[in-house]
Design a protein that fits this description.
The chain is mostly beta strands and about 475 residues long. The chain has 3 domains: about 150 residues, Bulb-type lectin domain (Agglutinin, subunit A, Orthogonal Prism), CATH 2.90.10.10; about 130 residues, Orthogonal Prism (Agglutinin, subunit A), CATH 2.90.10.10; about 170 residues, no CATH class. The chain is about 5% helix and about 35% strand. The chain has 3 helices and 33 strands. The strands form 10 sheets. It has a 4-stranded antiparallel sheet with strand order 1-9-10-11, with no helix packed on it. A 4-stranded antiparallel sheet has the order 2-6-7-8, with no helix packed on it. Strand 14 and strand 15 form a beta hairpin. The protein is globular. The termini are far apart.
Length: about 475
């Protein structure tokens, strides 16, 4: 049953029966979210129509308001995958809208509680239509699509939708792009690229020129759980990734950039209300996602789950209820400028710019002996911050962080054997071989030279990365060691 504040209950928030191909949203329609103090079950925060008796349940789409999981009092206008109540497109908004209006001039807009416009399509159209593929389109009098959600994605690509080089997926500080070269990139704050791969193995050459590449979950009208790169210059669609359940039928599939910075492929049954399950992720090791644990946070694993903690007991969480918000010093370096010291972090690496990015950004880059570099970094006032760190017994690197004395240790965290293989559940033997191979290389190479790579920074968002142990997938040179000092 539609609530009283819905002026056109059968047009504004629409679900599709099996025998209906599309539904129209008429001009002069408006919709409001539930009252903030009214207790409504989560799946009723958006309106839906019930299927007639005797018809099997089916995945459908609706358009309306949906609360954010982190704050159920904050609503956003969204295209919603039902019955799982999964948003597949959200209208850009920094404040909770009070109503959705489809004006007589064809402008679709969101209005806040004061009557101010917080987002609008700015398109004069004749009709809005939400089709059974999940695309919300605005059309003019000749039925030409003027604007649609498939061409303006937010964080999700549905199985009938293509991602082009003109669009980006965004989720918080993270973004995902398809480059003209065919590479897939994940970025933090549009500045740090922490994933940059073709992601597929075929006859495709990295130097090959592409005409107009797109990413798609569908080829020849079929969706089998394979993510493809499609381009006119390729003899056939190139496989980017296989879902763990590829080939299974009767599944609805989509890819999404999550708030944790990882791109994942999901599936759910077309004939049940099951929650979408993740079948593939771009970054296999969640701790390699840049900024996952926030400023001065360290990512590690507790059994199989990534957890965020502070570098040492010289730090405290920035927000007690959200460890992903990073850490802050108990005492700032400015309070002990002439008396700061170094806290050594074993089995830890700081994630940051690649070396060439550091140099190109006007930072000072130099190599020198370990002790000299350590002393130089200790005395430089700019070496204060880092953003993202990773700690694991599989890492042989040592990192250093600057603190006010005394330099305190962290309480040990219980780590299972799963931690050593979190890079990929299928690579346990590879990881062990890598560690053993590296240790053998250390024995053979007696005269190891330790390098330290330092750089200056003008603000906290810039910092340095130094990798001691390359991962199994990237290749390791036995005996190749880079010790580093960081802020």
């Amino acid at each position: 049953m539609a609530p009283k504040n819905l002026s056109h209950p059968f047009h504004l928030l629409l679900l599709f029966y099996p025998h209906i191909t599309n539904s129209l949203i008429p001009l002069n329609s408006s919709l409001k979210p539930p009252p903030p103090n009214k207790k409504i079950p989560h799946h009723h925060h958006h309106l839906h129509l019930h299927l007639p008796p005797g018809l099997p349940p089916k995945i459908t789409f609706s358009f309306g308001f949906l609360p954010y999981p982190s704050d159920t009092s904050f609503f956003s206008a969204a295209v919603i995958l039902y019955p799982s109540s999964t948003p597949v497109w959200r209208a850009p908004s920094k404040s909770s809208p009070a109503s959705i209006q489809f004006q007589s001039n064809g402008n679709l807009r969101l209005i806040d509680g004061s009557g101010s416009v917080i987002w609008q399509s700015n398109r004069g159209v004749s009709v809005a239509i939400l089709d059974d593929s999940g695309n919300l389109a605005l059309k003019n009098a000749t039925s030409t699509v003027i604007w649609d959600t498939f061409s303006n994605p937010t964080d999700t690509v549905l199985q009938s939708q293509n991602l082009t080089t003109c669009s980006k997926l965004r989720s918080g500080p993270y973004s995902f792009s398809l480059l003209a070269s065919g590479k897939l990139t994940l970025n933090w704050n549009d500045s740090i690229t922490y994933y940059n791969k073709h992601g597929f193995k075929s006859s495709f050459s990295a130097n090959q020129s592409l005409a107009s590449p797109v990413l798609s979950l569908e080829t020849n009208g079929q969706t089998t759980g394979i993510l493809y790169l499609i381009d006119a210059s390729l003899p056939s669609p190139a496989v980017v990734a296989y879902s763990s359940n590829y080939g299974e039928a009767s599944l609805m599939r989509f890819i999404r950039l999550e708030t944790d910075g990882n791109l994942r492929a999901y599936s759910l049954s077309k004939y049940s209300g099951s929650t979408p399950s993740a079948e593939w992720s771009a970054v296999e090791d969640q701790c390699e996602v840049f900024g996952y644990c926030g400023n001065m946070g360290i990512c590690t694993y507790n059994d199989a789950e990534p957890v965020c903690r502070c570098p040492s007991q010289n730090f405290v969480p920035s927000e007690l209820n959200d460890p992903r918000k990073g850490c802050k010093r108990k005492q700032e370096i400015s309070d002990c400028p002439m008396n700061s010291t170094i806290r050594e972090l074993d089995n830890t690496q700081f994630l940051t710019y690649p070396l060439k990015q550091v140099a190109s950004n006007g930072n000072e880059v130099f190599f020198e002996g370990f002790s000299a570099c350590r002393e130089n970094c200790l005395t430089q006032p700019s070496f204060v911050y880092f953003i993202s760190g990773y700690q694991s017994p599989a890492l042989l690197s040592t990192s250093f962080v600057r603190v006010c004395p005394p330099a305190l240790l962290n309480q040990p965290i219980s780590v299972s054997s799963n931690t050593l293989t979190k890079k990929s559940g299928l690579r346990a033997g590879i990881v062990v071989a890598v560690v053993v191979g590296t240790l053998v290389g250390l024995v053979l190479l007696e005269g190891v030279v330790y390098y330290c790579f330092c750089r200056g920074s003008r603000f906290a968002a810039e910092y340095a990365q130094y990798t001691l142990l390359e991962y199994a997938s990237d290749g390791i040179l036995p005996g190749q060691i880079i010790d580093f000092y960081k802020h």
